[in-house]
Amino acid sequence: MEHKFLRRALFITLLGLLYIPSFAQSDRTNVLFIAVDDLRSELGHFENSSIITPNLDKLASQGVSFTNHFVQVPTCGASRAAFLTGKRPSRKAELGNNIMQDEFNKKPETETPETFIHHLRRNGYHTVGMGKISHSVDGYVYGYEEEVSNLKELPYSWDELLFDAGKWDTGWNAFFGYADGENRQSMKRQVKPYEAGNVDDLGYPDGLTTQLAIKKLRELKNSVQPFFLGVGLFKPHLPFNSPKIYWDLYKEENIPVAKNQKLPENVSSQSIQGSEEFNQYALGEEKAGLDKIIPDAYAKKIKHAYYAAVSYSDAQIGLILDELKALELDQNTIVIIWGDHGWHLGEQQVWGKHTLFENALNSALIIKIPGSKVSKIDDSIVESVDIYPTLMELLELENPEGLDGESFAGLLKNEDSSQEGAAYSYYNHGITVRTARYRLTKYFRDAEPTIELYDHHMDPFESVNIAAEKPQIVAELMPMLEKGNTGLYDKK
């Protein structure tokens, strides 16, 4: 009898060890995350904006839209790596697009999660990715002109990776795709940097990704697990292609050119870049560069193309959010819209990213919490690395050790409306720190000047470096900048 009791007790204990809890949709908060490639902080609901984004505007009216969100690195792969890990770059390899494909998939799984998505998965979330969340456009590691591999860029983060390459066959072909099924690679770069396609939304890859997301939301509606759904939209990344219906939203003659088209004063040419990515599209009517300002007519055309591509992505976001609401999943799902960095549209004579100026570092960020009545445009300084701890606080999960960001959940709940901060970014042998008023940048190079200071109260377009005129302000801010040097550069 005693042995029978012991066997039963042991059986119950084993069941307890094996038991994996399930969660009803109403018990845990889901996460819908939408990454939009090259989406700078220029949205319809911002002051003096000419861009048309009704769906992002509607979401902003239900949550918080940040005007001063800054990424850590102004290039896709490195920015996403910092965002996903919640860590600033501390090695030069972490400034490159290939950091995740070169290193993440080669590491064994350890106690430290590879990304916040991995951390969510360990805490009971079903994780689904589609499109460009890490640097790979479909989550797998392979070159632009190679066959799709089965090697995941983030091997421990995803339960499911989904993508529909459509008529382009592979993810990278789709990423650089044109409406006829060709792509930048197949056309040997003999293409324009824009296209107004005579197609509907499904004529470009983001339309296919959106339909996948809608289908997956309908499946996840019945899941007993909470979910993280990551959707990565390509546009407005080059080429600026979108259906003609989105071009027709704009009158090109009414699109303004950049207010600071000239090279900034008192700055080395090494602080700027020559728009090389933009110029890869060989059939563009004009080439950009540091030797000239492109004509206003062509500047308006390229901005028109960028704006149309943004409006196309905005429409896809609207379809996804409408489905979320129709399924009543909006009642327990956090929604995050994130741009992986900004893009110069002629500012400082640059067409592209890859600088430590405001236009390359400032990107869109909108967050909506279910059930919250907080609705505002917030100008607090926040960074991409802050999103990881913010999300964990909102989901009531512990942070892993070693995160560099700080939670701004209080801003989303109106518990802290006066949060002060500083945003650090890294690129081109330099570190920059952005405060509410100033941007201070230090370059670790021989070409002078190596220190740049911009006063955003007096010069919001960063057109004149005043470091030599304001040595006292430089001295006051320099300890803050050096605090952000994570070992990436020698401290001099």
Plain-language structure description:
It is a single chain. The protein has 492 residues and is α/β, with parallel strands linked by helices. It contains 14 helices and 18 strands. 28% of the residues lie in helices and 16% in strands. It has an 8-stranded mixed sheet, sandwiched between helices. A 4-stranded antiparallel sheet has the order 15-16-17-18, with helices on one face. The longest helix is centred in the middle third of the chain and has 31 residues, at 296-326. The protein is globular, with a radius of gyration of 23 Å. Residues 1-26 have low confidence and may be disordered.
User: Helical content, roughly?
Assistant: 25-40%
Mean pLDDT, all residues: 93
In order across it, which strands form the biggest sheet? 5-4-7-1-9-12-2-13
Radius of gyration: 23 Å
> Which percent range describes the beta-strand content?
15-25%
Low-confidence stretches: 1-26
Tell me, briefly, the overall form: globular
Q: What count of helical segments does DSSP give?
A: 14
Write a concise synopsis of the structure shown.
By secondary structure, the chain is α/β, with parallel strands linked by helices. The protein is built from 14 helices and 18 strands. It is 28% helix and 16% strand.
Write the layout of secondary structure elements.
Elements: H1 2-18, E1 30-36, H2 54-60, E2 64-66, E3 69-70, H3 76-85, H4 99-103, H5 116-122, E4 126-131, E5 160-162, H6 171-175, E6 194-197, H7 205-220, E7 227-233, E8 240-243, H8 244-247, H9 276-279, H10 296-326, E9 333-339, E10 344-345, E11 351-352, H11 358-361, E12 365-368, E13 376-378, E14 382-383, H12 387-394, H13 409-413, E15 423-427, E16 430-434, E17 438-443, E18 451-455, H14 471-483
Parallel strand pairs: 1-7, 1-9, 2-13, 3-14, 4-5, 4-7, 6-8
Antiparallel strand pairs: 2-12, 9-12, 10-11, 15-16, 16-17, 17-18
Helix pairs in contact: 7-10
